[in-house]
Design goal:
Length: 117
Amino acid sequence: QCASRDIVVSHDAYQYVAHRYGLNLHAIAGLSPEAEPSPQRLAKLTERIKDKKISTVFFETLTTPKLAETLARETGAKTDVLNPIEGLTESEQRAGKNYDSIMQENLVALRRALVCQ
């Protein structure tokens, strides 16, 4: 029960989530988080974010947020983090963070971005 079904992510690694939950995924880059999108790709995403009124551009904990921040600034969106857990630090582990808690944080971020009830 969400107002939106569209999410923008840093790279195309979340197709399984999008497919499972009926979301429309719009990736800044391809499968590699290090891949640089073309200017045409960024222009198309900027237009899509505005047209679909996408509120949030997600980036991952282990990637630079620069492209997400640029898209957000150009469109009036916010940025937020989707944590793939690969970058879990020792201090986070000591604080009790684990797979379940990280995925719950991701769920909260997605629900907020999609305006879910």
